[in-house]
Amino acid sequence: MRENDLLRLPLLSDNPLDPPAEWEQLRGRCPMSTVELPSGDKATYLTRYDHVKALLSDPRFVRPTAEDVGAARIAPEGAGGPAADGSSTLALPDRGEPHLKWRRQVGKYFTARRMTALRPGMVRMAESLVDDMVRGGQPADLKACLGFPLPVYVICDILGVPAADRDRFSHWSDAFLNVSRYSGGQTRAAYDEFAGYMGAHIAATRAEPGEDLISMVIRESEEEGHGLTDDELLGTAMGLLVAGHETTANMIGKMVAMLLADRTRWERLLADPALVRTAVDEALRFDANLGFGLRRYLTEDVEIDVEVLPSGTTVVCSMPSANRDESVFTDADDMVLSRSPNPHLTFGVGPHSCLGQSLARTELQVTLDVLLRKLPTLQLAVSTHELKRVEGLLVGGLRTVPVRW
Q1: CA–CA separation, 206 vs 218, rounded Å?
Q2: Are 46 and 55 in contact (CB under 8 A)?
Q3: How far apart are CA 371 and CA 377, in angstroms?
Q4: What is the pLDDT of residue 178?
Q5: Which H or E element spans position 119?
Q6: Of 7, 185, 193, 283, which is the most exposed, with the fewest CB atoms less than 10 Å away?
Q7: Which residue, 3, 7, 2, is CA-closest to 293?
Q8: CA–CA dist 116, 110 (Å, integer)
Q9: Angle of CA points 76, 66, 197, to nearest 5°
Q10: pTM score over 0.90
Q11: Per-residue pLDDT tens over the stretch 58-79
């Protein structure tokens, strides 16, 4: 591409539920292009499915840190939180055997059996939140009434922290994941508050363990004589709380908006609720408002097709563009609720894929089951063009999802 054609991320469309036109053009003509991030730094942007999957699957490359010389930053200098600037605030191993060991230890909690055990509690909570929303009258903001509180209650239960502190968690998460809303000083202050809170919770859990994830990890570490360090345990707890509610809270709102944007989709689910499982994965694939993409820092030269990307390059992998790749997905620009198999890349792939994806799927399925059963007449209270994005959020989201029933 010519320099004056340089694309600037994030790429946007007029409708926050629709993909930007540039994705299709890039996949066809320039699947590896140079883009400019909000920081002003340049990166290589991958938009085809096979390219994105290959790079995300490669265990050699991880999200860049502040120590990676020349790595492209997302946020401008002095803005954004740890997830945006790559600062090594969470002491989690990110590569090699230490990373695999960490995933094995924490991943024991996110089994299909445990998700099945958590499901009845999720259903009760979702039903209670929907009842409260109905009592509050219409129109209502589905994101505020259901999308945000449900994942907060669930992840708080998993970590053993009180859901009554959910407003504080929301502020800390936003400071971690937003690239434009907070100054560097504000994000550092939020981090210090969050770390102090979670450190005190871990100390209390160590003194009186329960059945939550933190207790499980502490118990295993004491019984086996090895395990996570105190810093790694703190990073795990903070990272899971942020990732475990922010992404799913936003996805609930987007999923419902996508299904209601075309009423025939909702009607089909009402007629055949067995489609909920595949519909959830199709919503994950179809989501065009997924944030900036995943960054990877190349520590050695990499050849993709016939092009060599040199060591020191920062690559941004656009999962939502890859999820619309016509060479992989038939009717890629249609929301096919029965699509199966559905090898979308929304949760990443390989050694750095989302550890909590089974939890997220379960929460999304429960949400959809409960809404179809309790509010079959649900509809958007505004046109899709009136929906607004959450500006600067790395994981993408809608500010509100106004609904009627």
Answers
A1: 7
A2: yes
A3: 9
A4: 76
A5: helix 112-135
A6: 185
A7: 7
A8: 10
A9: 90
A10: yes
A11: 999 988 887 888 899 887 765 6
